[in-house]
Amino acid sequence: MRIIHFVLLAIVSIAVLVAPALAAETVKIGAILAVTGPASFLGAPEARTLEMLTEELNAKGGIGGKKIQLIIKDSGASPEKAISFAKQLIDEEKVFAIIGPSTSGETMAIKNLAEESKTILLSCAAAEVIVNPLAKYVFKVAPRDSYAVEKIYHQMRKMDISRIGVLSSNTGFGKAGKEQLEKYAAEHGITIALSEVYDKSATDLSAEVTKLKGAGVQAIVNWSIEPAQAIVIKNARQIGLTIPIFQSHGFANIQYARAAGVAAEGVIFPASRIIVADLLPDKHPQRSVVLSYKNVYESKFKEDVSTFGGHGYDALMILTKAIQTAGTDREKVRTAIENLKGFVGTAGIFNLSPTDHNGLDIDAFAMLTVKNGKFALLEK
User: Fold this and answer.
1) 246 and 271 Cβ atoms separated by less than 8 Å
2) Domain boundary among 204, 236, 271
């Protein structure tokens, strides 16, 4: 019995010594993504991208010799679930950093949790309030809403459009976009004749577009990330509205255009260049990055690449770059992210700073349109 006792003690001692050693050989990264639910067009490609990149990085030895342990939580776009998962990842899993959430509402729900726990958060959502006001540990990789709004308004001025109607979903993204549209309208000579907010799960928006028709608007701007944005387009065309329809950067998944069918022809929206990667000039600084990601992703998953999967790419690669630079001291990595310059990602060229936790400028957006059922660069 004494021998068995000693053997058991030895095994326990070895386990105690080995466990920290194994932990030290990995970098545990959490992700909160809307893999299912109304925002799955965002979260599903983000999750697939993170899994693909993690597999690639680990096959090459990980980050600085440490393998990545990726833990993905499916929030279904629920802020309540995002809060619960954030607590799990921070308190129980002790993750080094969190990527996501996919939506602005979820990100705002966990922003303070990340800040209070000093956990690096790289959001894949777009709302400007994620990084303004600034939070020390919170970053985002999607371009600013205000830049998307300005790109749309610049295009409207070229088209002599000055009186518009606005539709937006009752989500964090929709609310933030509506505020930015209203904020910059007068500056660009735009009058918002009517603004309607609809439920994110709406299946018929005929009443809303009929009101816009009655208001005599010259164009419609819809701001949402849900499938309802395709319904806006179909319903508008069904009641005979032939005016231009503008969408937010939340339209940058070809599935939305396909859902709207022929009604989507001519829709205009701002987006990152990843979805038109093969149309970029050879000398464009992003061409090699976005083409490489696009080709690998589409080959592996047999589906079209989207802006949103690109956000997953940018978040993990920025974190990887910072760890390669600063090691696995979280404070040093946070500082490295905050001072990252000239990083070429799918959304644009990132130049972060202590006062800018997004690092993208208005040139991150190109103006695109739907042409023959596909996304194309809008002719100037």
Assistant:
1) no
2) 271
CA pair distance 372, 262, nearest whole angstrom: 8
What would the mean pLDDT of 214-236 be, rounded to a whole number?
Answer: 96
Where are the alpha helices (H) located in 25-144, listed in sequence order?
A: 40-59, 79-87, 104-117
Q: How much is the average pLDDT of 282-304?
A: 96
**Distance between CA 26 and CA 39 in Å, rounded?**
31
Q: Supply 140's token pair.
A: 């985002």
Range of the domain at 305: 7-143+290-362
- Bridge partners of residue 25, in order along the sequence: none
Residue 247 lies in a domain: yes
Over the stretch 330-373, which tens digit does the pLDDT of each residue have? 999 999 999 999 999 999 999 999 999 999 999 999 999 999 99
How, if at all, do strands 97-99 and 26-33 pair? parallel
Cα–Cα distance for residue pair 337/316, rounded to 1 Å: 11
SS3 289: helix
Q: What residues does 168 pair with on adjacent strands? A: 197, 223
Report d(CA 153, CA 161) in Å as an integer.
Answer: 9
How many folded domains does the chain comprise?
Answer: 2
What is the torsional sign of CA 120, 126, 127, 131? positive
Phi, psi of 220 (to 5 degrees): -115, 140
SS (H, E, C) 11-56: HHHHHHHHHHHHHHCEEEEEEEECCCCCCHHHHHHHHHHHHHHHHH
Q: How far is CA 352 from CA 141, 214, 331, in A?
A: 10, 45, 16
* pLDDT (0 to 100) of residue 173: 87
Reading across the β-sheet that carries 120-123, which strands appear in turn?
67-74, 26-33, 97-99, 120-123, 138-140
Among 8-17, 86-95, 266-275, the range scoring the smallest mean pLDDT is: 8-17
Distance CA 219, CA 98 (A): 39
Q: How far apart are the two ends of the chain, measured CA to CA in Å?
A: 85
Give the pLDDT confidence of 234-272 residue by residue, as tens digits. Answer: 999 999 999 999 999 989 889 899 999 999 999 999 999
